[in-house]
Design a protein that fits this description.
Pfam families: Glyco_transf_9. InterPro entries: Glyco_trans_9, LPS_LOS_Heptosyltrfase. This is Glycosyltransferase family 9 protein. This protein is of the alpha/beta class. It has 20 helices and 14 strands. The strands form two sheets. An eight-stranded mixed sheet has the order 9-8-7-10-11-12-13-14, with helices on both faces. It starts with a strand and ends with a helix. The mean pLDDT is 93.
Length: 517
């Protein structure tokens, strides 16, 4: 394999989360050239990304500005045409599209590639999601299903590249510019030689932000009781959060909000002993620097999916039936922001800075606490530490091993499951296998038994409908039925036997999942 393209029209965090994929591709194909297709808004992180040989940049901001101003109606079309022509110029052995959008599907369809994974578009413009892992990532975009996903996005990206995860954290390379800034910043503020804890105040959405007053309380306790100095991190538009936090503090923190670019932020975060963060990009900088992060899971923050990728991080999840909430939900009373108390966050900081000691469930009242580590197979996993339900933990671990085992081929054959609902589903998918096998046999007969095939087709349609209905009725089955629906959507070809074979594979996958769950 000589040419590999990575289509990542994504945010900073997503780009950081591709680094284990790039690392694994480098290991599997040491002589290959890797081209990253990225958006201009997030080019600032490119100097930090190791393993990228070449970039093609979508000037999306310029195009949006041309459309908004309308001064030259042809300008945005010409710029888009120029970008698409750059995509069409190359020829690749593998295209990995980690971006889950229709726009990225169009871009993927413009790239000449011998093999592609993730979303693309066919000749008619219909989306085509290639590989089981590609279909899996789309299946849990449904807000009601996302909570059942137990596999980190980094591992899914890596499997999209058809390489295994290696059990190592995300990776960035500090630049000389960033290191100079960090040294100067520490010297200017008298922080050289002191133990530092970073506080990331903002997030991309207001629903993910812990109150500034809470950050003030945790800052005071950290400085007073653990003898550390605290640094406030955030983008320029989050300066008001820093002002609110500083006004509520008894012991002032050092304010770095709005003072750092991407390179400077990474180097400065790397000088910290720990980071307390909302679910946002700075958390991934900490993971790449090997700095333990305390993730505050406010609103739609799914730590198992998008949490910091590395060992020893903590996730604090409100112990509420509605947490995490769907992305589409507009909450009139976001109680989760206060459910995570400053006391719980301070206890978590004590854990990462000095060990758990005598901490117990009471130190994290109202909060479930999880810690990250790498499983023997190289995937990231999270283990419950405080206030977690053992039965829930067992179910999560089972879902985690089920999907991986089914897709990676490591799952052992199982008989009928003991759970009544799963057994019914297992039997139903078994009927689907039998019916599609009958269609395959009929498709080989000469002359074609049209009436028999019509009868079998109607029977298979009834099985399909019942499979979907079971997903609507039973929440834990919803991810499976949604996934099978996507598998069916991406069945290709016109020959009856080929379609029947792909449909049989669909039912076999569903039966395997039911047996393992």
């Amino acid at each position: 394999m000589k040419e590999i393209a990575l289509l990542a029209i994504a945010r900073y965090g997503d780009l950081i989360q591709t680094t284990p994929l790039v690392r694994a591709l480098r290991r599997a194909h040491p002589g290959a050239r890797i081209t990253a297709i990225v958006e201009d808004r997030f080019c600032g992180i490119l100097p930090l990304l190791p393993g990228i040989d070449r970039t093609i940049v979508l000037n999306k901001q310029d195009i949006a500005w041309d459309i908004a101003t309308g001064e030259s109606p042809l300008a945005p079309y010409l710029k888009m045409d120029e970008f698409v022509r750059k995509l069409e110029e190359g020829s690749y052995d593998l295209l990995v599209n980690i971006t889950c959008s229709r726009l990225s599907a169009f871009f993927a369809s413009c790239v000449t590639s011998r093999r592609r994974t993730g979303i693309s578009a066919d000749e008619t413009g219909e989306r085509n999601i290639v590989t089981l892992w590609g279909q899996y990532i789309f299946s849990w975009f449904n807000d009601n299903i996302r909570k059942y996903n137990a596999i980190n996005l980094v591992d899914i990206f890596t499997r999209l590249g058809e390489v295994p995860p290696d059990g190592c954290r995300v990776e960035l390379v500090a630049t000389e510019k960033g290191e100079r800034f960090a040294d100067d910043f520490l010297n200017r503020h008298g922080l050289k030689g002191q133990r530092l804890v970073g506080l990331q105040l903002g997030a991309s959405e207001a629903t993910r932000i812990w109150p500034a007053e809470h950050f003030a309380r945790i800052s005071d306790r950290l400085q007073r009781e653990l003898g550390v100095r605290t640094i406030l991190f955030g983008a320029p538009v989050e300066k008001h959060l820093a002002e609110q936090a500083l006004a509520a503090m008894e012991l002032p923190a050092v304010d770095a909000v709005g003072e750092t670019g991407i390179e400077e932020l990474y180097s400065l975060v790397g000088r910290c002993a720990a980071l307390v963060s909302n679910d946002t990009g700075t958390m991934h900088f900490a993971a790449a620097a090997g700095v333990p992060a305390v993730m505050l899971c406010i609103g739609p923050a799914f730590f198992r999916c998008t949490g910091p990728y590395g060992e020893g991080h903590l996730a604090l999840q409100p112990d509420l039936p509605c947490s995490p909430c769907p992305y589409s939900l507009v909450c009139a009373d976001p109680v989760c922001r206060d459910t995570i108390s400053p006391k719980a966050v301070f206890s978590a900081c004590r854990m990462v800075l000095a060990g758990s000691g005598e901490l117990g469930n009471a130190d994290f009242a109202g909060v479930r606490v999880y810690r990250s580590s790498f499983a023997p197979d190289g995937y990231l996993t999270w283990d419950g530490l405080f206030n977690v339900d053992a039965r829930d933990e067992e179910q999560v671990k089972r879902r985690e091993t089920t999907w991986k085992g089914c897709f990676d081929g490591s799952a052992k054959r199982c008989g009928a499951p003991g759970d009544e609902t799963l057994r019914t589903f297992w039997e139903l998918t078994g009927q689907g296998i039998e019916t599609t096998e009958a269609i395959i046999r009929a498709a080989r007969e000469k002359p074609l038994p049209v009436d028999e095939i019509r009868r079998l087709g109607e029977k298979e349609s009834a099985i399909e409908a019942e499979v979907k209905l079971m997903g609507y009725r039973h929440g834990p089955l919803a991810p499976v039925t949604e996934f099978l629906t996507l598998m069916r959507e991406n069945i290709t070809g016109e020959e009856l036997e080929r379609i029947a074979r792909q449909t049989r594979a669909l039912y076999e996958t569903g039966r395997c999942l039911a047996a393992l769950l």
